[in-house]
Every structure is written in structure tokens, then in C-alpha cells.
Amino acid sequence: MKGISIEERAIELAHYIIDSKDTVRGAAKKFGVSKSTVHKDVSQRLLKINPVLATEVRKILDENKAERHIRGGMATKMKYIEKNQHKAG
Known about the structure:
Helix content: over 70%
Order of helices and strands: HHHH
Largest sheet: none
Strand content: under 5%
Structural class: mainly alpha
Number of strands: 0
Number of helices: 4
Radius of gyration: 17 Å
Shape: elongated
Number of domains: 1
Distance between the termini: 45 Å
């Protein structure tokens, strides 16, 4: 992400999140920046650069937040399934 402006990065992150419906954590990993940077870019900076795009990203982030507990529960379930398979096998 070096060599591009903060504004360009914010817009690229926004398009990525909208297209992929990825989480802040996933976008941070993909772009090699911190979760804090992604969050600040798409929540604060983007609002000043492109409010319409910021609104679209906010919808995705809100959706991801609403589903977070489900993903966490599934991850925990898979963890215990794998743990029990190792005991049995």
C-alpha cells in the first residue's frame, strides 16, 4: 500500500469491503495495514472524501458486526469438533 495517498487507500479499502463483503480484520490482512487503520479509513476519512461510498461500507460493516457472534460460535464449534476427533483417533 506504499506509494498511494491516504485518500486513495481509503477508497480502495472501501471498494474491497463492498465487493468482497469482507470484515475489517480481513481487509487489514489483505492490504497489510492494521485493523485500526482500516476502521479509521472507512469510518472517518472516507466520510469526508466520499460520503456515499462511506454509507455503503457502513452497511457492510454493520452487517458483519451483527453476524459476528454467529461466526464466533461456529469457530468455537469447529474447534471442539477437531479437538474431539484427535482424542478419538
